[in-house]
């Protein structure tokens, strides 16, 4: 879980997004929040939007945001039986999954802000829908399908599951918005892959080569 902040403030005062991702299915929830919320409000949202739908997680990975490292948040999850793990400067990859989604989400939000101006918040559910119904290479299916065991029924995928129905103008507009969002997502993912590939360097070692060993600041004994 993490936050996307610094977004244009809308009429209802929302100016940030709290997103929570399931490590197994890659499914995600994007929640509208205000940076002025107190921890009680975050706890209320967490129970309402996550626990209500999916139960209590066995563990959560997040960065060291003060909201996540507070005594209140730790006590809440200790009572729920959830283990909290924090990414650190020595091991930022621990929350790499969230960082990738942040990059995708920020690109999508920029598109929404440009296209929908002051009503970008009303399109956030469509962004979440588009993300959860887009193919993820790591699980070889869409998060929705991994979560529920079936393809999602929607006007966009009606041909894929053997259905076709007449739709009204409101549904058609929503479908077109989802298509634009998904196209933007594909472009974003392709750009990120190209950037990563251009900076990747294959390393080849042979017996007898001298290498540097990085020793991280970690507790306990490590055996190789």
TrEMBL record:
Location of the Integrase catalytic domain: 1-151
GO BP annotation list: DNA integration
GO MF, one example: nucleic acid binding
Membrane-spanning residues: none
Coiled coil start-end: none
SUPFAM superfamilies: Ribonuclease H-like
InterPro entries: Integrase_cat-core, RNaseH-like_sf, RNaseH_sf
PANTHER family named in the record: CHROMO DOMAIN-CONTAINING PROTEIN-RELATED (PTHR45835:SF99), YALI0A06105P (PTHR45835)
Protein name as annotated: Integrase catalytic domain-containing protein
């Amino acid at each position: 879980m993490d936050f996307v902040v610094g977004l244009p403030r809308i009429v209802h005062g929302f100016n940030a997004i709290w997103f929570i991702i399931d490590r197994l299915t890659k499914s995600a929830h994007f929640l509208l929040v205000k940076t002025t919320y107190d921890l009680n409000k975050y706890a209320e949202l967490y129970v309402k939007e996550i626990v209500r739908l999916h139960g209590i997680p066995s563990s959560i990975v997040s960065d060291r945001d003060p909201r996540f490292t507070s005594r209140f948040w730790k006590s809440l999850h200790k009572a729920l039986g959830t283990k909290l793990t924090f990414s650190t400067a020595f091991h930022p990859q621990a929350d790499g999954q969230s960082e990738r989604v942040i990059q995708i989400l920020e690109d999508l939000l920029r598109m929404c802000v440009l296209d929908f101006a002051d009503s970008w918040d009303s399109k956030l559910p469509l962004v979440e829908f588009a993300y959860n119904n887009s193919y993820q290479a790591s699980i070889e299916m869409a998060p929705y399908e991994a979560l529920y065991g079936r393809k999602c029924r929607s006007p966009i995928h009606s041909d894929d599951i053997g259905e076709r129905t007449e739709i009204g103008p409101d549904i058609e507009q929503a479908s077109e918005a989802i298509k634009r969002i998904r196209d933007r997502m594909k472009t974003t993912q392709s750009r990120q892959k190209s950037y990563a590939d251009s900076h990747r360097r294959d390393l080849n070692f042979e017996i007898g080569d001298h290498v540097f060993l990085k020793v991280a600041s970690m507790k306990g004994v490590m055996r190789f």
